[in-house]
């Protein structure tokens, strides 16, 4: 009985609230109805009916305003009720595993099967993931010490991958928990590359700086009054500053190439003219090293899409290396021929030296930054260890590729495969 009375009181309060929210509308309507009653001579019955209709309209207007929101909420609720946990897990791109209070797998999505394999409902997570960090994560969640936690986890097989694993409870008092694996492998790889790059660049700069600092100290001390030693040390210092300047220029070139990975369309390069310019610019270096540069160019137009300055830098780096490291062979051959790839027309530019060659184990890594086949020889030849890396970046921008063939004692051939369109 008390509940009935309470319910009636609640309805009455709701009705009163609706009337209060529409008090201005009611007031205006009452004034209008009484005006019609007094001035138009309407009957009392008409007056009562008009007042009742006005009150009903005021209450219905509030309900009508609420109907769209209520209908939207009802549609949303019914849609979510039709979704199962399996569908929601499948919609997650990252590996996801749902487990219960005993660390037993209840469900794993397709991404989890692809990443880890061998997963099945009823399997123990503790047995599947034995790493200490994963055990600690599961223990913390299942013990109720934390509602959510995350750790870094590395999966060794079949391919090493690093994940950021997040664990949390599902809902309230459901007895279910979820693991989500966010793949961090590419991010970690880039971080390692960046750290290695900075370390290598710092090392390459530190060596000449240490040399210059040592010679300055000597010139200010024991060699202060020794003209011969002073001239010798100043020459060495000049060489070292030139080495640092070349390194900085190459670092800036790499940075610019990485900032604009896509080639501007619509420009064409005449290979014959460009390579002739490269040969002319390196003629003094070839003469200094006792190397003769020979040309073997195909007939007809040799035009490819690309950036002339960047391709000039590619052939300049390759030809300069051939003159420096292949000087014992006495000559270098630069040839342009039709591309050998039948699927895509183009041109092959080959720069071949007849020097000591490159051992097979070095060829796959020779375009890496700061990688050197012979450190002492490279530094003696004023190399920075970045030239072939710059070549690779430029050719990637031109949808081109570099192939290297070499045999120890018989020289090396660097071939640039350029598409014609």
Description:
The chain contains 14 helices and 12 strands. Helix 10 packs across helix 12. The N terminus is likely disordered. The relative contact order is 0.06. The strands form 3 sheets. A 5-stranded antiparallel β-sheet has the order 2-1-5-4-3, sandwiched between helices. A 5-stranded mixed β-sheet has the order 7-9-10-12-11. The radius of gyration is 40 Å and the shape is elongated. The protein is of the alpha+beta class. Strand 1 and strand 2 form a beta hairpin. It is 54% helix and 18% strand.
Short description:
The protein has helices at residues 2-21, 23-40, 44-82, 85-90, 110-116, 125-128, 132-142, 185-220, 227-259, 271-281, 283-288, 308-325, 375-380, 387-397, and strands spanning 96-100, 105-108, 148-155, 161-169, 176-183, 268-270, 292-297, 303-305, 331-338, 346-353, 401-406, 412-419. It has 421 residues and is of the alpha+beta class.
Keywords:
421 residues, alpha+beta, 5-stranded antiparallel sheet, 5-stranded mixed sheet, 12 strands, 54% helix, disordered N terminus
Helix-strand layout with pairing:
Blueprint: H1 2-21, H2 23-40, H3 44-82, H4 85-90, E1 96-100, E2 105-108, H5 110-116, H6 125-128, H7 132-142, E3 148-155, E4 161-169, E5 176-183, H8 185-220, H9 227-259, E6 268-270, H10 271-281, H11 283-288, E7 292-297, E8 303-305, H12 308-325, E9 331-338, E10 346-353, H13 375-380, H14 387-397, E11 401-406, E12 412-419
Parallel strand pairs: 7-9
Antiparallel strand pairs: 1-2, 1-5, 3-4, 4-5, 6-8, 9-10, 10-12, 11-12
Transmembrane segments: 24-57
GO molecular function, one term: ATP binding
Catalytic activity: ATP + protein L-histidine = ADP + protein N-phospho-L-histidine
